[in-house]
Design brief:
Layout (H helix, E strand, L loop, with lengths): L3 H4 L2 H41 L2 H6 L10
Length: 68
């Protein structure tokens, strides 16, 4: 009983391996791009919040005794 690998010739098998490798590389690139976009979105949101006086006031430590 022959397996599928035994039935395929070497050229077809190498093409399939190359295509699988290419697909994995493309998926990794997409994953990295999504990660970069998420990081940039977080950075932009933090920058926006740093300019929002209400946010800064609500999230500041209100222990003024430390600053005397």
């Amino acid at each position: 009983m022959d397996s599928l690998k035994d039935r395929l010739n070497a050229e077809t098998l190498s093409k399939l391996h190359a295509q699988a490798k290419l697909l994995k590389e493309e998926e990794e690139k997409r994953r990295e791009e999504r990660k970069k976009q998420a990081e940039e979105a977080r950075r932009q949101e933090q920058k926006r919040l740093e300019n929002d006086f209400e946010y800064l006031l609500n999230n500041s430590k209100l222990d003024w005794h430390k600053f005397k």
